[in-house]
Amino acid sequence: MIPRLYIDGPLHSGLPAPLSAEQAHYLKNVLRRAEGDELRLFNGKDGEFAAKIVELKKKMGAAQVGERTREQEAEPDLTLCFAPVKRGPLEVIVQKAVEVGAARLQPVITERTVAPKLNIERLQAIATEAAEQCGRLTITSVGEPIRFAKLLDEWPQGRRLLFCDEAGDDENEEWGGREGRALPVLEALKSANSNSEGWAVLTGPEGGFSVKERSELRAKPFVTAATLGPRILRADTAAIAALVLWQAALGDWRKS
Amino acid sequence: MIPRLYIDGPLHSGLPAPLSAEQAHYLKNVLRRAEGDELRLFNGKDGEFAAKIVELKKKMGAAQVGERTREQEAEPDLTLCFAPVKRGPLEVIVQKAVEVGAARLQPVITERTVAPKLNIERLQAIATEAAEQCGRLTITSVGEPIRFAKLLDEWPQGRRLLFCDEAGDDENEEWGGREGRALPVLEALKSANSNSEGWAVLTGPEGGFSVKERSELRAKPFVTAATLGPRILRADTAAIAALVLWQAALGDWRKS
Description:
The structure is a homodimer. Chain A is α/β, with parallel strands linked by helices.
């Protein structure tokens, strides 16, 4: 297996690329690689390149960049907005969201969010490692947490939001003046297949969204509400499931 | 939150039900419950019942069974056949497969399976706990591992198998005489929507299936081959994704 690394800088065939202290450590001490060994490098914009380790010290290293092995490709514009949860499932969300193909991760603080202070740097490191291992040509960025109200207030024009309404649908509730039930997720995605400029998926904390939050979401014209089956999903399961279904219905899982 | 427990025995309104030593410990010491507190009980065949704790000792307990709160319902006949992986992702597979709604988990030893000896009892305990927490009315059973060849030889008449071909499709390979590429997963599920008596999903180990295994699978008339997007999924991500997509396309996630 040839190690695949993300380089935060330019990559050009025939020129050297510096390896960070962490990358040098990882190659030397974890993967037991040495000078002369092969790499694959990508930087999120120029595709993927073959490379060779030409220097491997304790706190730095360098690679010689060879031929381009893959061209950069357009990727689905899909953001995961999620209420942070405790560390184990949080890290599962980050790792799996990257593999499934989310472009951005946006932590959202909802009413019922109970989570320790987020270490965004650590989550970004998990996201970068997952991108290196799953063969992506880009890095999924992890944003600073924002409040639920601010998320809705500053929603970008043209972007649709798949709201995964885990609490299901109560026919007696009024949904901020809008009619209609939350649809089964594939039906919801099919019916919302509009000229949207990108999509996002929103999943809640372990306790779900409050009635007020659900009502506010349902009242927004950019929101498509969907149910994720009859069982109660954990927060991490719901996030992965929603991303997978979006990719299969509207994203790059439609290609074989 | 009212604790929900699986009882391996009969449940009748008005009669007592014994609680196991583990259940008594869990209620008393983990959840801090006492005599008089409410429960929900299910046994996989008679629906769900309200109940009250009437006795809670160190090594045993009992509940008085009250009214039936939910009728037993038919559930999708979906088996997850999966190559065991190391402990962390293995437990993620078991927990998530139960939530997503798999009826049975069948570990399969493939050529490239690298996994420690499986503790089936522990995996069954994780499956039972997940069923209790996600609101299922049944328990997902965890089978003893079987070899890949035996799985195919003894395949039940009428059951279809969704083979998630992570290695993708190589147009130059011969697939045991069968033509055609692996389809994107939703397309594959739609095209295979036959009069099958139940379904199974098969996902591989971290190293994927061997060329021989893939070729054998493609040659079976009960197999539908599908791709899960352009990135390399970890074994646990692939298993969750395949189950989610099956449920949304052909299972009980079609209901709202």
